Amino acid sequence: MVLSKNVSTFIGLDNEYEESKVVVFGCPYDGTTSFRPGTRFAPGVMRSESFGLETYSPYLDLDLEDYKAFDAGDLEFPFGNTEKVLKMIEDFTDNIVKDNKVPIMIGGEHLVTLPVIKSVYKRHKDLYILHFDAHTDLREDYLGEKLSHATVIRRAWEFVGDNRIYQFGIRSGEKKEFEWAKEHTNLTKFNCDGLNEVVKYLKDKPVYITIDLDILDPSIFPGTGTIEPGGIFFSDMIKIISLFKELNVVGADVVELSPHYDASGASTAVACKVLRELILSIVVNK
Q: What is the enclosing helix (H) or strand (E) of 83?
């Protein structure tokens, strides 16, 4: 597959597809959002607002201009057909993976993570998932619907299996979700304690990273659909992302920014900086 550069790119991602090691693309979909919709606007807003940043990260001492990363733009989805949307994402990601490139997806609601993980899993059957979120996302269904942003990690577990998913920052969910997690995932409530040890364990294994931005405290990130007080802070997130340089990351995403719920633009700025750090922490080893 050969893609042309998107007309509007995230800052520093104006390289050619063939020469790039990672491919960023947007999935502007929020069709199963259970509370406040709006995440479908995130990829476009993040691209335009990213030019308020620099390409250089003083946190990682790395610069996007020194690496090859490609912005493929947004997928265009039909309305009202969740299964078709997920299949489109999976097919698109399949081509990126077949070309030996790392997919990095911008959501969108959290359900759009599922087909990206599915695609990466086809190549890496020993895949592990690092999940950063305020919510468990482990429901069997949400109001009878199995495909929901509230069920995405449960659906991923169905093919990756027990003890392959590490969840951090979780502070909201049904009681039975927390009880289910005790038997099937590795769930850390409220913070990211123990992540250092997990990174050491996963060092040589293929890892998928999914960051639901509502893991952040709403005092710094109010622009999301389901706000949960008691989250981590930006300085915590930077420390977390810096650890990813030690991992074999084969896919990643950033999801659940709803930019219009924060008219100040602060939430979007935070999301852009998280994405910049995430890209750099992955591309540096590719």
A: helix 82-98
The two three-digit tokens of residue 136, written as one number? 């468990």
The answer to whether residue 119 is domain-embedded is yes
In this prediction the pTM is: 0.96
Amino acid at 123: R
Give the structural domain span for 57. Answer: 22-283
Q: How many domains does the chain have?
A: 1
84 found inside a domain: yes
Dist. CA 238–CA 240, nearest whole Å: 5
Whether 186 contacts 107, CB under 8 Å: no
Residues 39-80 pLDDT 10s: 999 999 999 999 999 999 999 999 999 999 999 999 999 988
- Give a yes or no: residue 271 inside a domain: yes
And the tokens for 183? 């038997």
Model pLDDT for residues 224-253, shown as the tens digit of each residue? 999 999 999 999 999 999 999 999 999 999
β-strand partners of 253:
105, 210
